[in-house]
Amino acid sequence: MADQKIYQASTTAPVNIAVVKYWGKRDAKLNLPTNSSVSVTLSQADLRTHTTAACSATFGPEDSLILNSSTQDVSGARTQACFRELRSLRTALEASDSSLAKIATLPLRIVSENNFPTAAGLASSAAGFAALVRAIANLYELPASPTELSRIARQGSGSACRSLFGGYVAWQMGEKDDGSDSLAVQVAPASHWPTMRALILVVSAEKKGVSSTSGMQITVATSKLFKRRAEVVVPESMLLMEKAIKEKDFQSFGEVTMRESNSFHATCLDTFPPIFYLNDVSRAAIRVVEDINKNAGKIIAAYTFDAGPNAVIYYEEENVDAVAGVLNGALGGLDGWKTRDIEPQNPSNLDARAVQVLKDGVSRVILTSVGEGPIRTEESLIDATGAPVQK
Question: How far apart are CA 310 and CA 203, in angstroms?
Answer without folding.
Answer: 5
